[in-house]
């Protein structure tokens, strides 16, 4: 089944209003017309409005997090309904930095995933293992537990409404990158496990790689049969670096893959 590549830039806690405007202007002039791949950006909350109102046509905009609650006395949180009302298309759930720094557990992540699909946002479910877990050969068990929690909450049909992003924690912001073969091994595992529940959904769902992806390795990573694009961190913070990755996705979308 042909799955359209997705290049998603997670800006994390970077940027300013001027940065957001400049990035959108750069993408407008640098992206191909009617690309055969999807592009998304995930700015901080306070820059979402700026991006949504200045982004090139066809680019998706997403938030980096959302509340597990509909509304109420949860100061500092932002609901899925609010994001949808603003014009967001997507939202990250369960990013490793949220899991580690804010102690988000898989059950909470699953509730956030459910909130996203309830309000017609596409959730990007981030999963991945730490270096210690990889060294102790727990990668598959850890990754599947994180996905299973979402399946338990929303079922396979609900999971199919989202995207999965495999982000080995040991390769985020470290300069380390899983080799294309290492990424493919985990992506293939995820897809095979999903297939045991529903083969059609398994073949349809997009699985991104996140972890120090850049222009120099994007082609090799995205060429893997079960890698459907990337969740990009540092390389999404300059137009040149992000477009270099998009260029590789464009080549593959035109028939290299």
UniProtKB/TrEMBL annotation:
Involved in the gluconeogenesis. Catalyzes stereospecifically the conversion of dihydroxyacetone phosphate (DHAP) to D-glyceraldehyde-3-phosphate (G3P). It comes from Marinicella sediminis. Transmembrane segments: none annotated. Gene3D superfamilies: Aldolase class I (3.20.20.70). Substrate binds at residues 10-12, 173, 212, 233-234. Keywords: Cytoplasm, Gluconeogenesis, Glycolysis, Isomerase. Homodimer. It holds the Pfam family TIM. This is Triosephosphate isomerase. Belongs to the triosephosphate isomerase family. It is found in: Cytoplasm. The active site is at 95 (electrophile), 167 (proton acceptor). One of its GO terms (molecular function) is triose-phosphate isomerase activity. The keyword Cytoplasm applies. It catalyses: D-glyceraldehyde 3-phosphate = dihydroxyacetone phosphate. NCBIfam families: tim. It comes from the Bacteria. Pathway: Carbohydrate metabolism; erythritol degradation; Carbohydrate degradation; glycolysis; D-glyceraldehyde 3-phosphate from glycerone phosphate: step 1/1; Carbohydrate biosynthesis; gluconeogenesis.
